[in-house]
Amino acid sequence: GAVVSQHPSRVICKSGTSVKIECRSLDFQATTMFWYRQFPKQSLMLMATSNEGSKATYEQGVEKDKFLINHASLTLSTLTVTSAHPEDSSFYICSARDGTGAYNEQFFGPGTRLTVL
Amino acid sequence: DAKTTQPNSMESNEEEPVHLPCNHSTISGTDYIHWYRQLPSQGPEYVIHGLTSNVNNRMASLAIAEDRKSSTLILHRATLRDAAVYYCIPLSGGSRLTFGEGTQLTVNP
Predict the structure, then answer these.
(1) A1 vs B contacts (CB less than 8 Å)
(2) Do A103 and B93 make contact, defined as CB atoms within 8 angstroms?
(3) Chain B residue with minimal CA distance to A10?
(4) How far apart are alpha carbons A51 and A66 in whole angstroms?
């Protein structure tokens, strides 16, 4: 199956700083990428959908100025958590969809655990 | 999005079959039934999907009711590595995956 990587896998930062998380599709071109957030003992919550070269579409309740998403190429999307606070501590997971196949399956990255002190 | 109902948790013994049910009574005619699973501290992993007919792959089998209002994921011989949260997700092509609560599967040695 197709591979999606995330970097870093784990990050700890101080409150008020910004953190960037990268999501890469390694062996396919991802026309669409998705960002999810997962708090402990909860399910994944979709934050936003991004298409290469266009602005991301955010789900209701997700602050677009706080969670900046850039999908500059068909293999890379970045999520920047700006002015992070302890309540932003969570497991962030990206996924990518290969739009060239007959079936548009979503492939998931391994996740990034963010801890804000 | 179609609403789904899955048991919160299930238990199985190692090397025994496991049947994970899912009700999706509001599924639309164009929705495929997808199953994903999430192992602890990992991203979700695709398991299987189907539309009307039963499906088999190396990981599992998917049995779909004739009226498509329910489906069952079948793991033929559970292993300890199958312990995960299993999500049933009806989805049309091009839509994005949204996750419910899923079923936490515990496999006992």
Answers:
(1) 46
(2) yes
(3) B41
(4) 19
Please, how many CA atoms are within 13 Å of residue A12, restricted to the half-sphere of its CB?
A: 1
Q: With an 8 Å Cβ cutoff, is B109 touching chain A?
A: no
Q: Tens digit of pLDDT for each residue in A69-117? A: 998 898 999 999 999 999 999 999 999 987 666 566 789 999 999 999 9
Closest C-alpha among A101, A47, A45 to residue B93: A101
A23, A25, A95, A108: best to mutate for the B interface, most B CBs within 10 A: A108
pLDDT at B81 over 80: yes
Q: For B20-52, write each residue's pLDDT tens digit.
A: 999 999 898 888 999 999 999 999 999 999 999
A93 in contact with B at a CB cutoff of 8 Å? yes
Instruction: Record the tokens describing residue A37, joined without a space.
Output: 């957030």
Q: What distance in Å separates the CA atoms of residue B100 and residue B34, rounded to the nearest whole number?
A: 12
